[in-house]
Amino acid sequence: MMGAMTRADNRMPSVHPGLRLCLLGLFSLGCAWPSASAAEHLQPNFAQPFTGNRVESYEVTLPIGRTDNAVFSVPGRCIEVESLYLSGAGQWGSQLERHLWLKVINDCEYHRVLFRYASHPRHDFVSGYDFGNARFEDLPLWPECLQSMNDAPCGGAPPGFVSIPDMLGPPPAPRSDETDLGRDCQIRDGVFRGHLVPMPGGIKCVPDKRAPGFRLLSVDFADINGDGYLDAVLRLLPLGLRLTRTPVLLPLTRKTGTESFSAPKAFVPPPLPRSLSENSDRREGKVD
Amino acid sequence: MTRLLAFCAARPWPVWVVVVALSVLAAAQLDDLRIHISSEELLVMDGPEHRDFERIVETFGDEQSIVLFLSDERLLAKPKLAALRDAIGAIEQLPFVARVQSLFSVPRLRTVDGFLSKEPYLAELPESEHAAAELLAEALKNPFLKHTLLSADGRAMVIAIGLKSGPQKFDDETITAKVDAAASGLSGHYESVFSIGFPYVRSEIAQRIRAEQSELFPLAAAALVLVLLFLLRQLVDVLLPVVTAVISILWTLGAMAAAEIPLNVITSIAPILLIIVGSTEDIHLLSEFRQARHDGLSGPDALRRMAKKMGRTVFLTFVTTFVGFLSIGLSGIEVLWQFGVVSAIGLLFNFLVTISVIPATLSLTGAWQLDGRTSLFSANSCALAQSYWAWLRRHRQSVVYTVVALTFVAALGLPKIQVRHNVLESLGEVSQVRGRLDELNQRFAGLETLSVVLYSGIQDTFLKVRYLEELLKIQEFVEGQDYSASATSFANHLSLLNAAFDELDEPSMPASDAIVSELMLFLGFDHVREYVSRDFSQARILVRHNVTDTARLHRFVADLRAFIRDNLDAGLDARVTGDSVLTLSATRAMMEGQLQSIGLLLAIIVFIVSILFADLRVGIIALVPNVLPIVVMFGVMGYADIPLNVGTAMAAAVAIGIAVDDTMHFMLRYNQELKSSKSQTRAMHTAIHSEAVPVLSTSLALMAGFLVFLQSDFQPIAQFGLLSAVAIGTALFADLMVTPLVVSSLRLITLWDLLSPTVRERVLLSSRLFKGMRSWQVRRFVASSTTTTLAPGEYVFRAGDASNELYMVISGEIEVRFPGHTRENPIRENFGAGEVFGEVALLAADSRRTDAVAVGTTRVLVLSREAMENTTRYHPGITANLFHNLSVDISRRMIGVVSKLRRPMPGRRGDDGRDDESR
Fold this sequence. Notes:
The complex is a heterodimer of chains A (about 290) and B (about 900).
Chain A lengths: L1 H10 L5 H10 L19 E2 L6 E2 L2 E6 L5 E6 L3 H9 L8 H20 L28 H5 L16 H4 L11 E2 L10 E9 L2 E6 L5 E10 L8 E9 L8 E5 L21 H6 L9
Antiparallel strand pairs in A: 1-2, 3-4, 5-7, 6-7, 6-8, 8-9, 9-10
Helix pairs in contact in A: 2-4, 3-4
Chain B lengths: L1 H9 L1 H18 L18 H13 L4 E7 L6 H15 L4 E5 L8 E3 L2 E3 L11 H11 L16 E8 L8 H11 L9 E6 H35 L2 H24 L11 H8 L1 H16 L4 H28 L7 H32 L13 H16 L1 H18 L18 H12 L4 E8 L9 H16 L3 E5 L1 H13 L10 H11 L1 H4 L9 E8 L4 H18 L5 E5 L1 H34 L3 H24 L8 H29 L3 H29 L6 H30 L6 H4 L7 H4 L9 H9 L2 E5 L4 E3 L7 E7 L2 E4 L10 E4 L4 E2 L1 H6 L6 E4 L3 E7 H10 L1 H27 L17
Antiparallel strand pairs in B: 1-5, 1-6, 2-5, 3-4, 7-9, 7-10, 8-9, 11-18, 12-17, 13-16, 13-18, 14-15, 14-17
C-alpha cells in the first residue's frame, strides 16, 4: 500500500498542485456524462457531502477553529471558504473534516476553472467528439510518462495536467496478444481498464478487466484558457485497488476537427491555496 | 413467640378484623399489578459485563425489532413483491415502527455512469424470473443481507421492523396484533409468512402466565386440600392452611402492586408456591393442637400447649425457610433476585398470618369436631411409633448403607449436569413461537447476537486500513468456526462502497487510508453508526448466531477471546460483549448463585442449629439429612438431562429451606421430650409419634403441590416443580430414617435449656461436683439432666432399685440410710444443697443398697446414666472434671464413713484392751 502511495506521489508532481486540488474535488461533481453543453449553459453540479446526492449547491459545516464551526454554502460562499482555507482553517477538525475541507476547496476551484473566462468561444472543435469511446491515438498520452513510471517525474504532461498513464498500473511484460495502439485500444462506454505498454514501434495497450483504469465521469466544455477555442474538460475517476477514488481532470483542446487532442496552451490552473502548499513538507502540493 | 401465639388466641375477633382490613387494603392494590416480561430480567443487571454492554449500546445504539418472515420458491416474483410492498407500506405507517429494513430499503451501492447510486435493491420490481435471479445473486453478495435479510438459498427473506425506542405507549400484544394485521394479506402470496421477535415471545409468555395463574393455582390448592384431608381428616385443619395461604398471597400481590414489582415468568410462581409452602407451619400448629385435645386438654389449655411447644419451633423454621428463599436472590440474576425478595416477603406475610389467624381461629373453632374421628394420635399410632423406632434401630446399618449408596450413585450424575439459560428454553418445544424462532434460526444467521468491540483510544483509528484489516481478521475467524453465518462490521460497509466505486463484482477493502476517508464522505456517519464510534476510535463487529446451547456458546466465546488475545494488533484492545455474553455471564452468575445460596443456607442451618443446641457438632449433624436431598436432586438432574436453568436454579435452595424445617421440628421435639423423660428411647418414641404425622403431611402436601408445576408450559418451572418434589421426597426419607438415628445418640440441649432458671441456681455452680469446671461446662451438664421435686418423706430410691441416676440436691435435704435403720444402726447420711448422692451404686453398676428419702420439700437434679455416657462421648473434658470431683467426693465420704466406723463404741474393747471411746 505504501509503495503505491509513493509511486503516486512521485508521479503527481508534474501536475500543477492547483489542478490536483481540482482533481480531488472532482469526485464530488455530478454532471452526467456525456454533457456536451455549451459554455454559456454550464451548470456544474456537486455531490452533497455524506448523502452523495447530486445538487447545484450544498451547505456544509466546516471547522474553522479548535472549537468553532461554520456553515457555508457552496459555491455561493466559495470566496469566503477559500479565504479561510488560505488562513489555515483547513487544519482544524478530524481527519474526515480535513478531507471535507479539501472537497469543498476543490468544488470551489472547479467552479472557478469553468467560469474563469466569461467570453464566448468562437471556435468549437471538441464538443462533437465522442469522448466516451475515445481512441487513445486521439488523446495526448505523453509517452515520456509511460517510460517513467517510477520515482522520476513525468516530463511529458504540461504542468497542472494528469496523464492517462498516471492512472494506469505499471506496464506488464510484453505479451503476444497486445493490441496495437490505434486499433481496439480505446475507451469503451466511458471505461478503460488495462495497461499501456511502450514498445519500440509505439505504445500498445493490454485491456484487462482486473487492472487499474479509469471511468470517464463527465465532459464539460468551456474556454478555460481564454484563447477563443472551446476546450473539453474530462473528469476521470481512477479505478483500481490502490488508486485514490478522487476524480482527476484532463482538459483537452484542438484547433481543427481532424487533429488529435492536446493540452490547451497557456492554460494556467488556478493558483494553489497558499495554506495547502505551505502544509506540504515536500512542496509537491499535497497535504502531508 | 409463645406469648404472641397466646395473645392472638386470647383476642380472636380483633385479630380477624385486622387481618380482614389488611386484606381489603391489599386487594384494592391488585388493579395496579402488572405482568412484565423482559429478556433483560434473565441477566445480571449490575455486573461489569452489563456495564460494558450499556456502554456499547450508548456508543453504537440498540434497536428492538420484529421480523416478518417470508419464504417461497419464487421469492421475488413481481405480484408477490407488489403485495409485499403494500404490506411494508402499511407497517411503516404503524405508530410504533421506527424503520423497516428490507430489499425495498437497503441501498444497492453501485456506480451508474460513474456516479454512486444508493437506490435500494428493489427500487424497481424485477420483470422476469431471470432479472429476479440476477437481483438475488447480487443481493447475496452483500454481507448485510446474506443470512440476515436473505437466506443463503434465496428462498426466504425477512423484513426487519425496527421499533421506536423509549417508553412505549403500545404493549407487546397490541404491537404483535397490528403487525400481524398489516401482514395478513401476504399469506396468499407466499408459502410461509409469519412475524416473530421478542415482542412475540413476551406476548406468548404473558398470555401463558395469565393462563397458568388461573390453572395452576386451583390445582395447587386442590392438591394441598386432598393430601391434608386424607391425612388430617379435620375440615378446619384442612381449610385453615388454605385460608392463611390465600390471605398471605393477597398481601404479597398487594405489596408487589404497591411496590410496582411486576409478575414475570419466575415471580408468577410465587403465589402458587406460597399456597404450597405456606401450609407447613399451619399443619404443625394444628397437629400440636389436635394432639393436646386428644390428650384431654380443654381448648384454651390446648392452645397454651400449642403456643408453648410450637412457638419457638415455628419461628425458627420460618427463619430457615425465609433464608432459603431469600438466598435465591444471591445469583445476581434480576429475575431470581426479584423472586427471592417476593417469595421471602410472601413467606413473612404467611408467617404473620399463620401465627395470628391459626390461634385466633382455633380459639373460636377448637371445640368443633367436624368429623370427630381423627385417630392419628391413638394408642395404636403410639405403638406403631415404638415398633418403627425398634425396626429402625435394628436396621440402622442397612439405613446407613442405603444412604451412602444413594449419595454415591447420585454424585455420579453430578458431572452430567448441563447449564441452559435462554428465554426461549422456557417456551417448550411445542410452542408455535419457539417453532418459528427455530425456523428463523435455521434459515438465517439467527436472532442471537454478540459484539466484538475494538478500542484504540485514538481518534480516526478505524479510518486506517491496517486497523480495518484487524476487524476483517476477526470476522474471518468467526465465520470460519461454524458458529456464526454472519459477522459484519464497518469494514464491510467500506468494502461494499469501495467495490461500487471500483466497479468490482465482489466487495473489496480499500487499499489505502486516503481512500477510506474519501469513501466516508459518501457514506456518512449515520449510515455506519451501528458499527463505529463518532470519533472512529472504536469499532464493533456484530456477530449474529443461532447458538442457544450454553456450553457451545461458552466454547464459542472462549475461542473468540483466545483468538483475539493471540492475534489482535498490540495497539488495540478488544471486548466481547452483547446479549450472548450477558447470557453467559448470567449462566455463570446462576451457577455461582446456586453454590452461594446452597452454601449460605447450609451455613445458616449449621449456625442456627448450633446456636439453638449450643453445640457446633449438633449443627453439623443436622446437615446430614439435608445434604442428601441436595445431592439426590442434582443427581436426578444429571441422569434425567434436566439442565440448570433459571427455574431449576431455585429448586435446591427452596427445597432445603423447606426440608430443614422438618429436621428442626424433630430435633426440638426430641429435646422437649428429653426434658420430661429420663429415657432417650422413650423421648424418641414420643418424638416420632408426635412428629411423624405433621412431617409426613407437610412433605406429602409439598410434593403434591410441587408436582402441580409439572402442568406448567414453561419448562424451567415444570422442572423446578419436579426437582423440588424429588428433594422434598428425599428429605422426607432422610427425616424419617436418618434424623432419628442421628439424633438418638445425642442428648440435645437447647440454648434456652442452658439459660433456664434451674441451670442458673447458684447452688449448682458452687457445688463440689462441678469444682474446677467452667460455667458453660456446668450449664451444659446440668442442662442434660432433669429436676424433680419431692414431698417430705418421699423416696428418691429404695434399696434394691436399679441404679441408673445420680442426684444432686438443689434445695431441701435428703437422708440416705440403710433400710430398717435404728438407733442401734445409725449409719446414715444427710445431703444438703449442692451435695451429690446415689453415685456409688451408679458407678458400681450395682443395685441400690440404701434408701434415699426427702427430709422436707426437696428439689433434686437427676443425672441419668445415658446423659453421663453422652457427655463422656461428646464432652470428655467435662466428664474428666466430673469424675475427678466425684472421686474426691466419694473419697471424702469414704473417709467420713471409715471415721464413723472407727469411732469407739461404748463397751467394745480393742486388741489393746481399751474400749473404742477411750482410744
